[in-house]
Specification:
37% helix, globular
């Protein structure tokens, strides 16, 4: 079994708010991202991923203030994605306090941006995200803009191209599974992991601790990025004034909580469970 499996909370951001959707759509407000980030850091997160989920609408990343504030409070790697189109965009979020950048749309439109970013900032700084949707013939195609824009690119070939261009990691998201709590698309993750030489981060579908263990043991993921099972646990067990002063769809926060298929957990509980399954991870 691989060593040092990383557990990476993902924080999707819209404006000032942490949000969560299903299939990367239907966003509802969770609360203040800086509150969640600090809590996850204290609970033993290995890294954090911040994703500006509306950046594609404006073709720019607007997380600079949140990242600067967060970087002053936590001391684990922060990856930032969404709306990063140019080398100057990458430079800007790194200056704001990010340790890594996550590219998707820009990389598909102009793959050379991957190589340019690697040459400028180093491979360990460059992560490329793939949003995959399974087709009726069983093939996986890559999409952009939160799974809305069809690219026609076959996922495995694209992953191999990303690897060849020097990116340090790949985040593979099953749009079909994301936010559902039905478990990861194990076959998708396994195909990507077996086709590239760089670490693969699985994202999209975790509904319980067992799902995380399965995507590591059967999907060969090097890291797992999760959101719902952590966010919903935080909301259930932590008082927050987020519902009173955030914008957007806050009815979920004000209403009686309903978590449907999710068996929520904390990072310490999750990591303890993984260790019991003989999956090595960092415990604080």
């Amino acid at each position: 079994m691989k060593k040092n499996i990383r557990i990476i909370p993902r924080l999707d951001i819209k404006g000032p708010n942490l949000v969560k959707g299903i299939h990367l759509e239907g966003l509802r407000v969770m609360g203040k991202p800086e509150e969640f980030a600090k809590f996850y850091y204290e609970q033993g997160a290995d890294e954090l991923i911040f994703q500006d989920v509306v950046a594609s609408l404006y073709e720019r990343n607007s997380l600079h203030d949140i990242i600067t504030k967060t970087a002053k409070q936590i001391y684990i790697p922060i990856t930032v994605g969404g709306g990063l189109r140019t080398i100057e965009d990458v430079k800007s979020v790194l200056r704001a306090g990010a340790d890594k950048v996550c590219l998707n749309t820009a990389a598909i439109r102009n793959p050379s941006v991957i190589r340019d970013a690697v040459l400028r900032f180093g491979s360990s700084t460059v992560v490329v995200a793939i949003e995959a949707i399974k087709q009726s013939d069983g093939k996986y195609l890559a999409y952009t803009d939160n799974g809305r824009e069809h690219t026609g690119m076959e996922v495995i070939k694209w992953a191999q191209q990303i690897d060849e261009m020097g990116a340090g990691e790949i985040v593979i998201t099953s749009v079909d599974k994301e936010g559902t709590g039905e478990g990861f698309d194990i076959e998708l993750v396994r195909q990507v992991a077996q086709s590239v030489s760089v670490p693969v981060i699985a994202h999209g579908g975790a509904g319980k601790k067992e799902d995380v263990a399965e995507v590591i043991s059967k999907g060969f993921a090097d890291a797992v990025s999760i959101a719902s099972i952590l966010h919903y646990d935080y909301i259930k067990n932590n008082q927050s004034n987020s519902a009173s002063d955030t914008e957007g769809n806050v009815e979920f926060l004000k209403a009686k909580r309903s978590f449907h298929k999710f068996e929520t957990t904390t990072l310490p509980e999750l990591k303890k469970y993984l260790c019991e399954q003989e999956i090595s991870c960092r415990i604080i």
